[in-house]
Each structure stands twice: as structure tokens, then as C-alpha cells.
Amino acid sequence: MENRLAEIRKKKKIGQNYLVEKIGVSRQTISSIENGRCTP
Q1: Within a 13 Å sphere around the CA of 6, how many CA atoms are in the beta-carbon half?
Q2: Nearest to 5 by CA among 32, 33, 38
Q3: What's the rounded Cα separation, in Å, for the pair 8 and 21?
Q4: What are φ and ψ of residue 5, in 5° steps?
Q5: CA angle 27, 11, 33 (to 5 degrees)
Q6: pLDDT tens digits, 2-30
Q7: Cβ–Cβ < 8 Å for 38, 10
Q8: Whole-model pTM?
């Protein structure tokens, strides 16, 4: 399954920092997931 986190986040105009606060992971983790370096 393709990682669509960045696509969905941008479509809904949600910043990485907002997502970090809501789900409790680091911004680096979000970035890694969006860039395919990490699988959630």
C-alpha cells in the first residue's frame, strides 16, 4: 500500500507540527513516513 500521509495532510491543509501535537510523535518521524524511510 502506498504511503499517502503527505498527500492527505496537504489536501486537508494540516501542517506537520499540528499532526505532531495531535498524535504525539516527532516531526522527524512524520517526515520519515512521508518520504518512505519509515513504515508506520
Answers
A1: 11
A2: 33
A3: 17
A4: -55, -50
A5: 30
A6: 689 999 999 999 999 999 999 999 999 99
A7: no
A8: 0.78
